[in-house]
Design goal:
This protein is mainly α and 325 residues long. The protein has 14 helices and four strands. It has one domain. It is globular, with a radius of gyration of 19 Å.
């Protein structure tokens, strides 16, 4: 009933009208990929095209930009930061409990129950008055983006749900093309800080971690977007990010280095041993090559892996229908 377009309308230029009009019917997203053979349906879907288009549009927008550069912060972005601030505050109000097992603190479930209960209202507060009907659909992605309350784990599928949440906000026109930098540098960056706090506070397990063979136990997107920030940097090359002096000096400006700093704080022993993939990446000659390689790796290791995508939910905004050619 609706006309999908290749990029979220919010990212197509300020004159683009959102495809979501007054008579649009929203739906609560549900799982559609239940067996490995369904993966083809996902790769051909409008959701896949929109999601990848969103990731790559932002990747382009961030090229050569520092976290500290000047950019517009809209009212919707401010409201999203308030939402993330609320999640952060709830962590403070829900201290970890004493329990025999070191990992997976059960207090996380108390924290999650609060989000589960409040998610729809939190999302409604971010949406413009004429888009309130989208809240139940979009809230699902927010709830999926903070980890799993049964297993008390977090991984790249949860991170993808947050990107999907932001993509949906673009599709309904709550976020626009001039929000691009703020989407990553303000909103996604704040999300990362809250996720790191969750991971640390409740000792969350990495979901489907490949251990030393994965890029990172928890995140992937900040490495893609973070490598884009470095493209054409006059002095800093990929070989520099394993130097702790460089990390400490520049992490406020570069998302990639913030990730390395967090790894250095959480892991002990030689970098080459605990983060072998990143160590290998540091040998790639240019940031542009790193960026392209990470995008390929993200598709192969996250978006084309059944254990990740079986949990992805599809609704009217991110549709399982085949993409329009």
């Amino acid at each position: 009933p609706w006309r999908p377009i290749s990029l979220p309308p919010g990212l197509q230029g300020s004159d683009a009208t959102p495809e979501v009009t007054a008579n649009f019917t929203f739906m609560v997203p549900k799982k559609e990929i239940s067996m490995v053979p369904d993966m083809g349906k996902w790769k051909r879907s409008q959701a896949y095209a929109d999601y990848m288009g969103f990731i790559l549009t932002l990747n382009e927008a961030l090229k050569g930009k520092k976290l500290t550069c000047e950019y517009k912060v809209s009212e919707t972005v401010e409201k999203l930061l308030d939402l993330l601030g609320t999640l952060d505050r709830w962590i403070n109000e829900t201290p970890p409990v004493d329990q025999p097992s070191r990992f997976g603190n059960k207090a996380y479930r108390t924290w999650y129950a609060k989000l589960d209960q409040e998610a729809e209202a939190l999302v409604a507060a971010v949406l413009p008055a004429d888009r309130q009907a989208a809240a139940p659909e979009i809230a699902v992605y927010l709830k999926e983006s903070v980890g799993n309350s049964t297993r008390i784990d977090y991984g790249t599928g949860h991170e993808a749900a947050f990107a999907a949440f932001l993509c949906c906000l673009c599709k309904v026109g709550a976020l626009r093309v001039d929000d691009q930098l703020a989407i990553v540098f303000k909103v996604f960056n704040r999300y990362l800080h809250v996720m790191r706090k969750l991971q640390r506070t409740y000792r969350m397990e990495p979901a489907g971690s490949q251990g030393v063979w994965g890029l990172d136990d928890f995140q992937f997107l900040p490495f893609i977007w973070g490598s884009s920030q470095f493209i054409d940097h006059p002095t800093l090359e990929p070989r520099h990010f394993i130097d702790e002096r460089v990390v400490n000096e520049h992490h406020q400006d570069y998302m990639f280095l913030e990730c390395i700093k967090f790894i250095n704080e959480m892991k002990t022993g030689p970098f080459a041993e605990h983060s072998n993939q990143l160590w290998n990446i540091s040998a790639v000659p240019t940031w542009s090559k790193v960026n392209q390689g990470l995008i390929r790796m993200y598709k192969a290791e996250c978006l084309e892996k059944f254990p990740v995508i079986q949990h992805f939910k599809f609704g009217s905004l991110l549709s399982i229908q085949p993409a329009k050619p």
